[in-house]
Amino acid sequence: MARMPGATWRPVPNFRKDGQTEVRGLVVHIMDGSLAGTDSWFRNPVSEASSHWGTGRTGQLYQWVDTKDRAWAQGNGNASWLSSENEGRGGQALTEAQIDRNAEIFAWVHQTYDNVPLRRATGPNDRGLGWHGMGGKAWGNHPDCPGTKIVAQLDEIVKRAAAIVGKKPAPGGGTPSTGTGATTPARYQVTINGLKYGYGATGAHITKLGQALVKKGFGKHYKSGPGPEWSDADTRNYADYQKSLGHTGKAADGVPGEASLKKLLGSLPAQAPATPRYEPFPGAAFFSPGRRSPIIAAMGRRLVAVGCSAYAVGPGDHWTNADRASYRRWQQKLRYSGTAADGIPGKKSWDALKVPKQL
Ligand SMILES: [Zn+2]
User: Fold this and answer.
1) How far is the CA of 350 from the centre of ligand 1 (A)?
2) I need a surface site. Which of 56, 222, 267, 336 has the fewest CB within 10 A?
3) Residue pLDDT, tens place only, 10-65
């Protein structure tokens, strides 16, 4: 059993027991999504995805899979390499805190396993600190994971890991290549029926489209459940779907066209006639310890207004136990009981609360 001290142990069901046949080093990834979204995605057996560790942009460190077990992060590289997923959007660099967390992980891997040198690895048959794209097609063909900005940070991770264990980085490592046939997925937007699609487009229609892709079996690029912001993973999954329709070239670049979209969803979503006056349900995972948002404060004010306050101070914009206790009162007021009155908002009770729109 090997769990890293200092990492928050959050076991997920997605792994192969005792499947780590050797440890050549650590492979760095980008989530192309949020830590909370990835945390719940790895708990979903349908995703068939996981990694040993995960970092948040503000420095959270999770361990999801024991290092004796095989996580499902990089195809044929899973049996020989440990993995770290990092919160962020495709193309972003790691934050300072994430560089530190990865250095701590890599230092621990170096000290825990024999023959993991303190240097960047050059490919699947090398050892040290690697990245997903270096494995090419055999590792699932993710040339842009974690992206050139993060690949350029690997030497800094090695340097900090060496400082942690009080050694010098090992020689070698070579020049980082971004992998074979590195291509950035299409990053432009289109407007269909008044709604935007493509990299960076945001809205409930994006979440629904992602869910429809997963349902049809085109969800393998998600490392975070489908969310409201269009990511590279959405583009890659949509491209797979387009290819399944026989499209090629630009017609299969992962940015929707009207015909494929209509076919996927049954009909074309349209813009809501008026801006909704109330906050849409942000999903249960939104209400997690450490969450900070004006939506939380607005929810708290509504709970006070409907006579469900359990606040000693506040409400404020941090999700707290008092928020949860207040929300439980609201659920009880709606005659919910048992786990339906656990203080974590669900869609029905949330919509009934009518939290004024904040943005
Ligand atoms: Zn990856």
Assistant:
1) 35
2) 267
3) 999 999 999 999 999 999 999 999 999 999 999 998 899 999 999 999 999 999 99
CATH of 189-265, one of 1.10.3470, 1.25.40, 1.10.10, 1.10.101: 1.10.101
Separation of CA 161 and ligand 1 centre (Å):
21
Say how many Å lie between the CA of residue 143 and the centre of ligand 1.
9
Q: Are 284 and 346 in contact (CB under 8 A)?
A: yes
91-97-103 Cα angle (round to 5):
90
Centre of ligand 1 to C-alpha 210, Å, is: 19
29 CA to middle of ligand 1, Å?
A: 4
Specify the pairing of strand 81-86 against strand 25-28.
parallel
Query: How far, in Å, is the centroid of ligand 1 from the Cα of 73?
Result: 6
Question: pLDDT tens across 227-286, in order?
Answer: 898 988 999 999 999 999 999 888 999 999 999 999 999 999 988 766 668 999 999 999
Categorize the per-residue pLDDT at 181 as very low, low, confident or very high, splitting at 50, 70 and 90: very low
What are the residues whose beta carbon lies below 5 Å from ligand 1 (ion)?
29, 132, 142, 145
Of 338, 302, 304, 344, nearest to 320 by C-alpha is 344
Q: Are both 189-265 and 284-353 of the same fold?
A: yes
State which CATH number among 2.60.40, 1.20.58, 2.60.120, 1.10.101 fits the domain covering 284-353: 1.10.101
CA of 142 to the centre of ligand 1 (A): 6
User: What does the domain layout of the chain look like in residue ranges?
Assistant: 8-165, 189-265, 284-353
Please check whether residue 59 is in contact with residue 98, taking contact to mean a CB–CB distance below 8 angstroms: yes
Other CB atoms within 10 Å distance of the CB of residue 8: 12
Question: How many angstroms does the Cα of residue 84 sit away from the middle of ligand 1?
Answer: 9
The upper half-sphere exposure of residue 5, i.e. CA atoms within 13 Å in the direction of its Cβ, equals: 4
Q: Is the pTM of this model over 0.85?
A: no
For 8-165, which CATH superfamily applies?
A: Peptidoglycan recognition protein-like (3.40.80.10)
How many angstroms is it from 291 CA to the middle of ligand 1? 26
Query: 168 alpha carbon to ligand 1 midpoint, in Å?
Result: 28
Query: What would you measure as the largest C-alpha separation in the chain, in angstroms?
Result: 66
